[in-house]
Design brief:
mainly alpha
């Protein structure tokens, strides 16, 4: 049995390392292997991925990892420094900072992932449509993009969330409305170089409609660049969400959102530094992790890099 397993593993390695692939499946497998090897050879990207995975684990298993009730208040132990009982100390209401940081990872991931799921398809479809059709469609869509890009993303998100009202869901909508224009501009630039390709001309000569060409051929070609851009934009999304929480327009108390925790701790920054420093470091570390992983992902998915 062990010899059969070793033989199968050896055959798989030979199949993956064949100089010329004999099937589309083998070609994709070899390409995936090369990308994983490139990721493995990028220490900074691996560090970013490890931090992201650690954050995901903390968010999923938050009830098991947290040591205290995140809403339980005890004024007799307020503003206690880090100790064996409270690993990261307590806040102004006697709540355990470590437990609130762990549960706060859920909110941060929820906002970041939901925003990405909204921004990516909207920006991709608008950008590819404008780039492929051109003409007045391109002019109208790109002028709308220019109007959105004329405002800083945080200011634009503040305007939208002020109109919609505070709350996590409204914060996600506001951040999404401010984050899709750069994705659309990137997708348009990619489409302009793709639409003049020979294979697009061949598909067009076969009678394919513009909608089919955009969805079946242009969008898949633009997808890697958009995925990389979304990953790199995760840091900006997290910072914008934290900024809204800091200003009281995002997650509302007593929710353990990192921006709101940072806001409540700023009054005690000189006497009880851990209340503001811990959520600030969590925001910094998460943003840095997405930037590091995004750089590595760009080297893997974009053939023009690396």
């Amino acid at each position: 049995m062990p010899s059969n397993t070793a033989t199968r593993i050896g055959s798989l390695k030979s199949w993956l390392r064949a100089p010329v692939p004999t099937s589309p499946l083998q070609a994709r497998a070899q390409q995936l292997r090369l990308r994983l090897l490139r990721l493995w050879g990028n220490p900074s990207a691996l560090l970013g991925l490890a931090i992201i995975l650690l954050m995901v684990v903390a968010a999923v298993f938050a009830p098991l990892i947290a040591t205290h009730d995140i809403y339980a208040q005890d004024l007799s132990i307020r503003l206690q420094p880090p100790s064996a009982v409270h690993i990261l100390g307590t806040d102004e209401l006697g709540r355990d900072v470590f437990s609130r940081i762990v549960f706060g990872a859920r909110i941060t991931l929820y906002i970041a992932v939901l925003t990405a799921l909204i921004v990516a398809p909207v920006g991709l479809l608008i950008g590819t449509t404008a780039g492929y059709l051109g003409g007045w469609v391109d002019i109208v869509l790109m002028r709308i993009v220019d109007i959105f890009l004329a405002f800083p993303s945080l200011v634009l998100a503040l305007a939208f969330v002020a109109a919609l009202g505070p709350g996590i869901e409204n914060a996600v909508i506001a951040i999404s409305l401010a984050a899709w224009p750069p994705i659309a501009r990137l997708a348009r630039a990619e489409t302009l170089s793709i639409r003049s390709s020979d294979y697009i001309a061949a598909v067009r000569l076969q009678g394919a409609s513009a909608l089919r060409i955009i969805l079946s051929h242009v969008v898949p070609m633009c997808l890697p660049s958009v995925v990389v851009r979304i990953t790199l934009n995760m840091a900006a999304i997290i910072l914008t969400a934290a900024g809204l929480g800091f200003l009281g327009l995002g997650a509302q108390p007593p929710s353990p959102e990192w921006g709101a925790m940072l806001s409540s701790g700023r009054e005690f920054v000189l006497t009880s530094w851990w209340i503001a420093a811990i959520p600030g470091c969590a925001i910094l570390l998460t943003s840095l992790a997405f930037n590091l992983f995004g750089d590595g992902l760009r080297d893997i998915l974009d053939p023009r890099h690396g």
